[in-house]
Amino acid sequence: MKRLFLMGRSEAGKTSLTQALRGERLHYHKTQYTYADGDTIDTPGEYSETKAVGVGLACFSFEADVIALLIAANEPFTVFAPNCKSFLNRTLIGVITKINEPNANVAMVRQWLENCGCDRIFLVDSATGEGIGELRAYLEQDVEPMTLEQAKARQREGVFC
């Protein structure tokens, strides 16, 4: 299974998604520190919201196979800059959470994630389980190994993931 690194604002649903992927009962738990357990790395939303500690996210990302930007479907704005994928050397996916909220604007959030450069975008609702199976199936796919020569060739081409 791919190791998943979660980034997003406070209340975006990172911890709830972690619980849903594990098949656990959802319960509110404020993430106070970066929590790496098994196949998931859960980070406090404040890391994405604060420039002073945001650099720490880049350091933690090296421990993962896939980086997921989480944005709730009812967010009024995003903290992620367009083309933010350019500073990563891992696969970047987008996860739109809270898709069944009454004020959800999935199309707008999808556009934000496309602008970031996400390779794939998943729509999920951790409370109902909608979309969790599709995301889990993606994460269960084997990580494609890369030789040193392939990595060097990609680096010469300017491709990092």
From TrEMBL:
List GO BP terms, alphabetically.
biogenic amine metabolic process
Question: Can you provide one Gene Ontology molecular function annotated for this UniProt record?
Answer: ATP binding
Q: Which CDD domains match?
A: Ras_like_GTPase
Q: Answer yes or no on keyword Nucleotide-binding.
A: yes
Q: Which Gene3D superfamilies match?
A: P-loop containing nucleotide triphosphate hydrolases (3.40.50.300)
Q: Look up and give the organism this protein is from.
A: Parafannyhessea umbonata
What the record says about family reads: Belongs to the EutP/PduV family.
Q: What are the record keywords, sorted?
A: Nucleotide-binding
Question: By its UniProt entry, which PANTHER family does this protein fall under?
Answer: PROTEIN YOEF
What is the protein's given name? Ethanolamine utilization protein EutP
